[in-house]
Amino acid sequence: MDYSAEIHRTLKEFFGYDNFKGDQETVISHLLNGGDAFVLMPTGGGKSLCYQLPALIMNGTAIVISPLIALMKNQVDVLRGFVSGNESIAHFLNSSLNKAQMDEVRADLMAGRTKILYVAPESLTKEENVALLREIPISFYAVDEAHCISEWGHDFRPEYRRIRNLVEEIGRHPIIALTATATPKVQSDILKNLGIQGAGVFKSSFNRPNLYYEVRPKVDADKDIVKFIKKNPGKSGIIYCLSRKKVEEMAEFLCINGIRALPYHAGLDAKVRADNQDAFLMEEADVIVATIAFGMGIDKPDVRFVIHYDIPKSIESYYQETGRAGRDGEEGLCICYYSYKDIQKLEKFMQGKPISEQEINRQLLNEVVAYAESGQCRRKLLLNYFGEDYPQDDCGACDNCLHPRATFDGREDMLLVMKLIKSLPEHFKMEHLAAILAGRANALIKSYKHDELPFFGEGEEKGEKHYLAVMHQGLVARLLGKEIESYGLIYVTEQGEKFMKAPWKINLVEDAEFDEEDDKSDIDDDDEDAATERAAAKGGGSGDPVLFAMLKDLRRDLARKLGLQPWILFGDPALGDMSILYPLTFEELQKCQGVGEGKARKFGAEFIALIKKYVEENDIERPDDFVVKSSPGRSANKIYIIQSIDRRMELEDIAAMRGLDMDELLKEIEAIVSTGTKLNLDYYIEENIDADVEEEIYDYFRDEATSDSIEEAIAALSGDCEEMEIRLVRIKFLCDVAS
């Protein structure tokens, strides 16, 4: 059945959006037509809309199972805001409710007034709640944070394993499972455990093209971090350590070395944590040294580097934590320090835990070791881990691609591995296979009598690590595969079978040697400036780094004096242009990105004075060419729009006269305002936006926003406000404070 018209009407009427993002519409249509669904969508992709919208359309109540009690209340408040005066449309059921509140929820459910009910997994298991849900019509079940089902997931919750049985007990209806991050193994676990193997699967890409990945040997890491930060002056960064003690030691060490750093971990007083986080957001501190407790609740767009002092416990953790860099799409440098001694420490921590848990954690650590020691493209390895192919051989943004290691024709080694696999009646893990080829007769090999195989010791001179590298690259090349149901068992794929029949040349990369006693020649003082090289590779970075740092300091001080967040004055791209062009007049300043006459006049004087003094003191030769070309059509549009708004014309009429739709017109207005030109849209805003909504959006940009991002504003305002309203009030805000 085609629900398209009803879907779009509900999207606009309840959520205030004109268009869907990514797979949202496809997922919703699939669910409305009775299909089970699995949705893998990164944070910010709009997962909640995939179940909230169909819940409003379908008959009955949607049961949303979520582990986050605080998030439940927030989601319920948002949904209630869509329908004025209807508090019954959404409820949550968890341990925070008292008896009177529970009675209210029951009454609304029995009367059919509630369209969405959020339930904590622990609450779902209670007999009285199961009995209640059996009495009401249910539209579907949504399992949010579905990775909690899998023991291989990063946040396993045993209660999630009972969901399928409870659903069967209450009454089977369509199921939609949603998560922001899951490996193929976790995906398989989710589908199998919920009994929805035939579900429609909808996945978004994991690739973050602006991030640069590098692994360094952990030799004098403290000093190397200071050196790295000093080569990237004024940039915001996060350093992750596994222990609270190391967090505090590192923060103190950085401060001693003149770096504005603060600690953050769960053991600190709540006020101290909040103050340190605010200082980081307001650029009063450049670096936060933290345990993984930091980063979950913030979205600072201009974090320029994420450093892992200690190796993470899993690739999934690493991906999430590095993902906090470069959320504005600009430069994000991800440096990880690796020592096998750290792996051994983590293995010791596992002792005493159940054998099954130890086995899972050991496999996850093996993946981390493979990533750290590999000579292959790191982006390719990361995406492969999440089941996604990266078609290019050189991403141009990782240490292995920028400094490729020696390659060799791996046909013979790959064939040797494949012949061994095919000769065995059962499948084994790659560590076991590598030990056979290297001739290491451990207890497990002896128990299977694999030390009596003709393949035993055939690759002795090359060693275990060599064959582990071969197998990891065979997985990425899809010549080998891992059994999903028995995690880690290796088999030859269909593509591998073709390779065995007619082997083709296959270039394999020598893996890195991480010896803690070695000279760290790849990061010594004779090397080229790594940060500059990375920035050049990604087309980022500023011109004069000393001036850029001085401009950032000035921006921070001026922002504090004015009570504004720094990005409101000038963005990093504007400061970058200033450090290249050295503007000495207001007219020259306007040629920098995002700086127009209004901004130049309002905030520019102190910046020009600083640049002028710097140029004189350092005998700088300035570029002569300040010409910025623009298309005549855009210039004509700009003049017409400014004049029409001055005459208080309706925006719809302006758009019609220039042959634009409203989205295109707003983009034109935003471009005009971003350069500092002041426009007065009060007449239009007063007629089209409720005063309380306007106030809420304005307050957000004034007090909370860390950038002018519309996407962040939509997420922060939790669907209370339409995108058009947010854009219009943002324009008003920028005109008031930044023009």
The gist of it:
The protein has 739 residues and is an alpha/beta fold. The chain folds into 5 domains: 4-203, P-loop containing nucleotide triphosphate hydrolases (Rossmann fold), CATH 3.40.50.300; 211-402, Rossmann fold (3-Layer(aba) Sandwich); 407-509, Arc Repressor Mutant, subunit A, CATH 1.10.10; 545-618, HRDC domain (DNA polymerase, domain 1, Orthogonal Bundle), CATH 1.10.150.80; 632-738, ATP-dependent DNA helicase RecQ (Arc Repressor Mutant, subunit A). Helix content is 50%, strand content 10%.
Instruction: Average the pLDDT over all residues and give the rounded result.
Output: 82
Which geometry do the CA atoms define? globular
Side-by-side strand order of the widest sheet: 3-4-2-5-6-1-7
Provide the CATH superfamily of the largest domain.
P-loop containing nucleotide triphosphate hydrolases
Quaternary state, please?
single chain
- Low-confidence region ranges: 516-542, 625-634
Radius of gyration: 29 Å
Beta-strand segment tally: 17
CATH level 1 name of the largest domain = Alpha Beta
Assign the CATH architecture of the largest domain.
Answer: 3-Layer(aba) Sandwich
| Beta-strand proportion | 5-15%
> How far apart are the termini?
51 Å
How many domains?
Answer: 5
Derived structural class: alpha/beta
**Mind describing the biggest β-sheet?**
7 strands, parallel
The number of helical elements comes to 35
Percentage of residues assigned to helices: 40-55%
CATH topology of the largest domain: Rossmann fold
